[in-house]
Design a protein that fits this description.
Radius of gyration: 31 Å
Number of strands: 0
Number of domains: 1
Helix content: over 70%
Structural class: mainly alpha
Number of helices: 4
Largest sheet: none
Length: 100
């Protein structure tokens, strides 16, 4: 998690036993675990919020680009023109266009 390997963890544990004492160590580790869990929950919530803000910003940018006259949204223009052509076709041509 913090780049602490097995040997380093054993040294930290030995120092903690000497400094804190073996009787209070489980309670301290439990409290530290609760703190780390809360910290992870908070960071996940912040990350989700930032992702939502970024997604909303991207959607606004896409919408702005799509609504720009003469923009780069060629697929939208192609669909709009093809719909206009279907509306302007004669009834027998519409039947042929829809089947073929």
């Amino acid at each position: 998690m913090f780049g602490v390997g097995g040997p380093e963890f054993l040294v930290i544990l030995a120092v903690a036993i000497v400094v804190i004492g073996p009787r209070d160590l489980p309670r301290i580790l439990y409290t530290a675990g609760k703190f780390v869990r809360k910290f992870k929950v908070i960071t996940v919530d912040i990350q989700k919020s930032l992702d939502n803000v970024m997604r909303e910003g991207e959607l606004e940018e896409i919408t702005r680009e799509a609504n720009k006259p003469g923009g780069e949204n060629m697929q939208f223009e192609i669909e709009r023109q093809s719909e206009a052509e279907v509306v302007n076709l004669k009834p027998e041509d519409q039947k042929n266009a829809s089947t073929g």
